[in-house]
């Protein structure tokens, strides 16, 4: 594999020490770049998750606040409707009293 029996070199010659070192440096460089990319990606994901968590909490708070306001307005509307019904029936009674009186 490292050469033919005739002594001629072949494609499968053993790489020189400098070629192996160059290949090793290239592999280490590629690994470092991949690790840096993954670290950057992880940081970006953490930022997004943090934002979404804060956004979820804020949105839930605002929705709860709006539900409380809506409940208050519904109770107030119910009260005003019942007051309006009472007032609308009173003039009939007053006009009957005036006619009889």
Automatic annotation (TrEMBL):
Major site of localization recorded for this protein: cytoplasm
Coiled-coil region(s): none
A GO molecular function held by the record: protein-containing complex binding
A GO BP annotation: actin filament organization
GO CC annotations, alphabetized: cytoskeleton; SCAR complex
Stretches the record annotates as Disordered: 1-24
Keywords: Coiled coil, Cytoplasm, Cytoskeleton
Compartment(s) of residence: Cytoplasm, Cytoskeleton
Record-stated family: Belongs to the BRK1 family.
Stated name of the protein: Uncharacterized protein
Native source species: Gonapodya prolifera (strain JEL478) (Monoblepharis prolifera)
Lineage: Eukaryota, Fungi, Fungi incertae sedis, Chytridiomycota, Chytridiomycota incertae sedis
